[in-house]
Design brief:
Blueprint: H1 3-7, E1 28-30, H2 32-37, E2 48-61, E3 67-77, E4 82-84, H3 86-94, H4 106-125, E5 129-135, H5 148-154, E6 155-157, E7 178-197, E8 204-220, H6 222-230, H7 239-253, E9 261-268, E10 274-281, H8 291-294
Parallel strand pairs: 6-7
Antiparallel strand pairs: 1-4, 2-3, 2-10, 3-5, 7-8, 8-9, 9-10
Length: 306
């Protein structure tokens, strides 16, 4: 089946919600189509990373008929050949709504749902999928994406940078400019102005982006970086593709293969009860800036956009 037909199995189509558990609703989408456009080979990725999905509308019926309501956090590696199409996941999760599971209390319901969802997604995506389900009484022990120390020392919020016309609203890597610096260091850029559109339906997707750079004598010109982020405004791609495109452009212009370290994290507004948050990094140490967010056992904090 052609890739665009696979992606459009549910997305952009009128769908009826199933009232009983149905794993056949899940649709895998090959990653390689978009990666080919930015010269990335699945067999030799210039990054490591994860896709993290926060699902806010998890519900089923306990064995005694009482409803269970919770939140699920789903995490799997960007090394997987496939990503899961978002509407198919929403339809799949909704198929639990009127389904009676074996558990008769919240504790066992969480464990049972974790096992079922992890197994179903693992089979479809052909990779290991981590799933944590949190009950209605769950709370988050962290209230921001970045730790206080990281935020105070390294964060640069770039949305108030002075930028002048002309503007591009289709992705334009020529906008990226590198400045020489006299010393090594660390900087994390943040913007709430990320906007792109769904690849199939063209509905707008809003996000907050973090770009972390451990640099050696070179940094990004912030006003140009902001114009580059804005240039995605009319792009039509899935969230994971947007993140990987931005990462690859920065990887190339900063010559990360030779020096420095890079991480790009895109946290999108939820739609249909799910937000999707891809993170790509040049090495495992860079994940430290988002340690709490990457922890599958912790409820995710929110950005302004979320």
């Amino acid at each position: 089946m052609e890739v665009n037909k696979i992606e459009g199995t549910h997305l952009g189509q009128k769908s009826e919600y199933k009232f009983s558990y149905d794993p056949s609703l899940l649709v895998p989408v090959p990653r390689q189509e978009n990666r080919s456009l930015i010269n990335v080979d699945n067999r030799n990725l210039p990054f490591i990373g994860y896709d993290i999905w926060n699902c806010y509308e998890i519900s089923c019926l306990l064995s005694n008929g009482k409803p269970f309501v919770g939140i699920a956090k789903i995490k799997y590696s960007c090394n997987s050949e496939f990503l899961v199409e978002s509407k198919s996941l929403k339809l799949y999760l909704n198929s639990f709504n009127m389904t009676c599971i074996k558990a008769n209390d919240e504790f066992y319901a969480k464990r049972e749902l974790e096992e079922i969802i992890s197994s179903d997604l693992g089979k479809v995506l052909q990779t290991v999928v981590q799933v944590s389900v949190f009950g209605s009484t769950c709370t988050s022990s962290c209230d921001s994406i970045l730790s206080d120390c990281t935020r105070m020392k390294y964060l640069r919020y770039i949305d108030f940078e002075e930028i002048v016309a002309p503007f591009s609203y289709t992705e334009d890597p020529s906008l990226l400019k590198v400045l020489p610096m006299g010393e090594d260091g660390t900087i994390i850029y943040q913007s709430d102005l990320l906007r792109s559109n769904c690849k199939i339906t063209k509905q707008p997707d809003w996000g907050t982006i973090y770009i972390g750079l451990e640099y050696k004598e070179r940094v990004l010109k912030m006003s140009n970086l902001l114009k580059y982020i804005i240039s995605f405004r009319n792009e039509n791609h899935f969230h994971e593709e947007i993140c990987e495109t931005i990462y690859k452009r920065l990887y190339d212009v900063l010559d990360i293969q030779k020096e420095g370290s890079l991480i790009v994290a895109c946290f999108y507004t939820r739609r249909g009860g799910i937000d999707i948050n891809p993170i790509r990094a040049s090495n495992i140490q860079m994940f430290g800036y988002f340690r709490d967010y990457l922890n599958i056992d912790r409820v995710s904090p929110k950005t302004l956009r979320q």
